[in-house]
Design brief:
heterodimer; A: about 200 residues; Alpha-Beta Plaits; 2 domains; three-stranded mixed beta sheet; two-stranded antiparallel sheet; 6 helices; B: about 200 residues; mainly alpha; Rna Polymerase Sigma Factor, Chain: A; 10 helices; globular
Chain lengths: ~200, ~200
């Protein structure tokens, strides 16, 4: 389909051209051409009816789905919730301790809300157990300072346009770095932050 | 921690990204943002409340399942409109092939019995007065347009979607969208001048 498919008036003008300049004063041709005058009048009428239909539909209480729709959709979403992976925090003879990536992400996002100018987005967390023991070394003989898992957090964020990104991201990193031990008793070793988008304020 | 509320000024891309990570409150925010828009589109396409509600419910449920596959979070709006529009077009195709099969007079009566939002004459004078003749003419002519033209016109004029996005939805070039839209406006304007 090309421009020649756009309806033409007998005078050779495209309907499209008339529509584009509908809110401007008519050209000399449009003032004199009967077809253009008629077309302008009917398009102006359409433009006005379109505007008022849009307004009417937006505000018409009858043009909303029944209230139960949200619940029906959310029930399915809850039933099919995406289980995030679990991060093993420790393993002893009495059993393992795990935390879901989602729970930790929520903690991280909550911490991020304290920093103006950044919106947290997707968050992936990996865990690095204590460094693998060099061959022959008994892991029990190593100090306890480094014991426990080390988290590697990969957080994507959107930043407000115009902010000082390096400084804001560093503040965010510090906030997360203290929120994780405070909220879950785990140490975050590496916090990678990617600014993937800028949003207008 | 899924029940935490979202920051009030959160940009949509961030809401979508969180929903991709399985955050239910972020997804609920998207449901609340889009269900009314999708309903208005589906109702004007299908002229049937029940069918329009089914489209809204199916579209948003599918969006939850397919969200992780969406590569550009800022494309969510276009993507959800595309899903809903194509569902409407599919249903209209099914209806027209079904209508061709109808022979029983009772079925014909049932098929023509679609709900209308237009207030019946004399029922509610206040509402009736608000419903201008121009709008009535517009919606009546709109219903006579071929489905693709109607979808094109609704997406552009009622929902402000871009030519590129409408083109992706209706599988046509932005130039073809421009042509389809011009023909739709031409038909509606002509139809309205013959209305009454």
């Amino acid at each position: 389909m090309a421009l020649e498919d756009i309806p033409l008036l007998g005078c050779g003008r495209h309907i499209d051209q008339l529509w584009a300049t509908l809110h401007q004063p008519p050209t000399t041709h449009e003032q004199q051409c009967e077809q253009c005058k008629m077309a302008r009048t009917s398009l102006q009428r359409l433009s006005e009816a379109t505007r008022s239909l849009r307004e009417q539909d937006l505000n018409d209480p009858a043009l909303k789905p029944r209230p139960g729709i949200t619940n029906a959709i959310m029930d399915v979403a809850r039933a099919e919730i995406r289980r995030s992976k679990r991060i093993i925090l420790g393993s002893t003879e009495e059993g393992t301790t795990e935390i879901s990536e989602q729970a930790l992400s929520a903690l991280i996002r909550l911490a991020a809300t304290a920093i103006p100018g950044v919106h947290s987005r997707r968050c992936h967390i990996e865990v690095r157990s204590s460094d693998p023991s060099p061959a022959g070394e008994d892991p029990r003989s190593r100090g306890t300072a480094d014991a426990g898992p080390h988290l590697i957090i990969n957080l994507r964020v959107a930043a407000a346009a115009g902010i000082d990104i390096p400084r804001t991201v560093q503040t965010l990193r510090q906030e997360i770095s203290s929120a994780i031990p405070a909220g879950a008793g785990i140490r975050a070793e590496i916090i990678n932050i990617t600014v993937e988008d800028l949003y207008d304020v | 921690m899924n029940d935490h509320s979202l920051e009030p000024d959160l940009d949509e891309g961030s809401v979508v990204a969180r929903a991709q990570d399985g955050d239910l409150s972020a997804f609920e925010h998207l449901v609340n943002t889009y269900q009314g828009r999708l309903f208005r589109l589906a109702y004007r396409m299908l002229k049937d409340r029940g069918d329009a509600e089914d489209i809204v419910q199916e579209t948003l449920t599918i969006s939850w399942r397919r969200l992780p596959m969406l590569t550009d979070v800022n494309a969510f709006g276009g993507w959800i409109y595309r899903l809903a529009t194509n569902k409407c077009l599919d249903l209209l195709r099914k209806r027209s092939s079904h209508a061709a099969d109808i022979t029983d007079p009772e079925d014909i009566h049932a098929a023509s019995e679609t709900e209308s939002l237009r207030p019946p004459a004399g029922i509610d004078p206040a509402h009736e007065a608000e419903w201008s003749a121009e709008q009535e003419g517009l919606t009546a002519v709109l219903d006579t347009l071929p489905p693709m033209q109607r979808a094109c016109w609704l997406l552009r004029e009622m929902h402000d979607r871009s030519y590129t996005e409408i083109g992706a939805t209706l599988k046509m070039s932005p130039t073809a969208v421009r042509g389809t839209l011009a023909r739709a406006r031409h038909h509606i304007a002509e139809g309205m001048s013959q209305w009454r």
